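Thread: quick sanity check before group meeting

JM: Hey all, I'm pulling together slides for Thursday and realized we never actually wrote out the predicted structure for the chain we discussed last week. Dropping the sequence here so it's in one place. If anyone has concerns about the input, flag it before I start.
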Amino acid sequence: MKKVICLLAFSLISFGIMAQGIYITRTGQVSFYSETPIENIEGINNEVTSMINADTGEIVFAILVKGFHFEKALMEEHFNENYMESGKIPKSTFQGKIKDLAKVDFKKEGNYPVSVEGDLTIHGVKKAVTAMGTLTVKKEGISVLSSFDIQLEDFEIEIPSLVADKIAKEISIKVNCAYKPKS
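JM (edit): ok, ran it. Output follows.
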């Protein structure tokens, strides 16, 4: 947890402590889904911390891996111990930027399609990713919805041959976060 707080503190400094246009959430949701003919697996994390700088388009996510919960306790145990090794690699992060920020009017309510590009770190492996999403501006804050796919092998997540038919090689990730202005 201390590492996540340090990452967020560093991000706030890099955004500029007195900067206007900073939005934050500590209750964002990131989920993933693995579909196979034998068994579907879904993990949901409702404790995602994220910040967006509306002035620069910078966006940061910090996710504690142990925050993912599953329908079955055994899935959660295998996820943490065998695949994600969350005792050794406790967090996943994303640091990037909204590419088409000029299309978003943070003073006007509405839905804005956006493209985000940056570095996604999962299982200690950093990869450049691009994802499409929708940024919604409302009086009370902003929200972000996105979905994209990743390949497990890109992040060096090994699937034992014994269960290879139970876990898809490509995983769908969904992001759903509601942000409030930083006070």
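AS: nice. The CA atoms of residues 133 and 146 lie 4 Å apart. The beta strands are 22-34, 41-53, 58-64, 91-98, 110-122, 125-138, 141-151, 170-181.
JM: adding both to the slides.
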